[in-house]
TrEMBL record:
Keywords: Acyltransferase, Cell shape, Cell wall biogenesis/degradation, Cytoplasm, Magnesium, Metal-binding, Multifunctional enzyme, Nucleotidyltransferase, Peptidoglycan synthesis, Repeat, Transferase. Pathway: Nucleotide-sugar biosynthesis; UDP-N-acetyl-alpha-D-glucosamine biosynthesis; N-acetyl-alpha-D-glucosamine 1-phosphate from alpha-D-glucosamine 6-phosphate (route II): step 2/2; Bacterial outer membrane biogenesis; LPS lipid A biosynthesis; Nucleotide-sugar biosynthesis; UDP-N-acetyl-alpha-D-glucosamine biosynthesis; UDP-N-acetyl-alpha-D-glucosamine from N-acetyl-alpha-D-glucosamine 1-phosphate: step 1/1. It is an enzyme of class 2 (transferase). Pfam families: GMPPB_C, Hexapep, NTP_transf_3. In the N-terminal section; belongs to the N-acetylglucosamine-1-phosphate uridyltransferase family. In the C-terminal section; belongs to the transferase hexapeptide repeat family. It comes from Nitrosomonas ureae. This is Bifunctional protein GlmU. Its EC number is 2.7.7.23, 2.3.1.157. Residues 252-458 are annotated as: N-acetyltransferase. Residues 264-347 form the Mannose-1-phosphate guanyltransferase C-terminal domain. Residues 231-251 are annotated as: Linker. One of its GO terms (cellular component) is cytoplasm. The lineage of its organism: Bacteria, Pseudomonadati, Pseudomonadota, Betaproteobacteria, Nitrosomonadales. Its main location: cytoplasm. Its cofactor is Mg(2+).
Amino acid sequence: MLKLNVVILAAGAGKRMYSSLPKVLHTLAGRPLLTHVINTARKLSPNKICVVIGHGGEKIKQSIIGDDLTWVIQEQQLGTGHALTQALSQLDDDGLTLVLYGDVPLISEQELCQLLLIVVDGKSCAVLSTIVENPFGYGRIVRDVDTRAITAIVEQKDASAEQQDIHEINTGIMLIPNVYLHKWLPKIRNKNTQHEYYLTDIIAMAVKDGVHVATSQVKNFWEVMGVNNKYQLAELERLFQRHCANELLSAGVSLIDPARIDIRGELICESDVEIDINCIFEGTVKLGNFVRVGAHCILRNVTVAAGSIIHPYSMIEGAEISENCKIGPYARIRPGTRLSSKVQIGNFVEVKNSQIGVESKANHLSYIGDSCVGKNVNIGAGTITCNYDGANKHTTIVEDDVFIGSDTQLVAPVKISKGSTIGAGSTITKETPENQLTLSRSKQISVSGWKRPPKIKK
Ligand code: UD1
Ligand code: CA
C-alpha cells in the first residue's frame, strides 16, 4: 500500500467574501471551514497532512491547532497547480496524494474512502466529480465521445460554448500517485484566461501519458459545494443544518420544525427527545430520555439527564443537569453549574459555578454564584449571593432544608446552616444558627401627619 498524503489548498485570498478574515476561517456549523476539512482528513489516518497557506497565513496558523499539520507557504497565489507544487518536497516519494480544498468543507470520509478504493494499485489517478443543474463557475469534466473516458478538465473561463453545456463538474478533489505529481506539476503552464497554473491541467497530461484516470461521482452535492462568497456560505450552512436535522429525525428525535434548528458541534440524544423551534446547540450537548427543550434555547457543552425540561428562552453553558429538573423560561445557567435531580430554576435566575441539591428551587429573579446549595432548599424571589467584593470571589454555603425569604442578600463568604429560615428583605453577613429564624431588617415605622409634596405649577 502506498503512503497516503493529504494536501489541503487554502492559500487563496477569498476576495469574493469581502472580509479581512481569511476565507477558510469563516465558520460553518460553528467551526472554521478549514477545521472541517482537517477533521475529515484525520479520519483517513494519512501519513501526512499538508496545508498550503498564503493569504492571511499567520492568522490561520494561530487559529487552527494541530501538531500533526505541516504548514506550507505559497507566497503568491498563482493557481491551484502552483499551490500543490509548493508542497511537493514534503510529500513521500512512494506516496499517494489526496488533494482537498480548504473552501470545500463538507466532503465526507465515506466519499473519500470510495475514491481511495479506486486507486489502491497506485498506477491510476482519480477525480471526484458530480452532476449539477447549474455548473456555472466550476471546471467541467470533458469526456471522449465514444469511450466516455475523461480526457480533460476545462475551467469555466476557458470553456467553449459547447463545454459550458457540460453538467458534470470537477469537485476539485483528486488522488494522484506522487511519482506522477513529480512528472506533471513542473509541466503546467499558465497560458489560460486567468494566467494561473491550473492543477486541473494534469488530467490531460495523464491521458496523454496513458495513465488511467478514474472518476467517482459524489452522492450529496452539498458535500462538494465550494464556498466563494457569503451567499454560498449561508446556503451551505442551511443545507448542512437540514442534513443534521434529518439525521436526528431518522434517529427518532422530535423536531417541531427541522428547518429551524442549528447544530454547531455534536448533539447526542437518547430516546423520545423533543426540541422546539429555533434552538442552537454548540460544542457537545447530550440530552437524555424524554428531555424537552423549549423554543429559542441555547445549549453549549451541556449534559441534560432524563426527564428534564428546558423551558423557552433559556441559555445553558458548561453545566450538568440531572434527571427531572425544570429550567426556565428565561433562565441563564453558566459554566461550573451542577444541578441535582428535581431542581427548579425559574425565570430570570442566573446560576454560575454552583452546585444545587436535590429538589431545591430558585424560581424567580435570583443570582446564585460560587455557591453550594443543599437539598430541599427554597430560595425566594430576588435572592442574591453577593459573591464579589470588588477584588475576589467568595463562596456561599446553604445547607439542607433552608428557606430563604424574598429579596435577601447573602454576603459571601457566608454559611446558612441546616434548617435556617431567613426573613424576607434581609442582608446576611454572618453564619446563621441551625433551625432558627434569622432576619436583619430595620423596624417598620409609620409617620403620622406626613404629606406627599404638592406638584409645583409652572
Ligand atoms: C477550482 C477548480 C475547479 C473546480 C472548483 C471546485 C482549478 C484550476 N479549478 O476552481 O475545476 O470546479 O475548484 O470548487 O483547480 N488556492 C490556493 N492557491 C492558489 C489558488 C487557490 O491555495 O494559488 C486554493 C484556494 O484557497 C481554494 C482552492 O485552492 O481553497 C480552490 O481555489 P479557487 O480559486 O477557489 O478555485 P475555483 O475557481 O473555485
Ligand atoms: Ca473555490
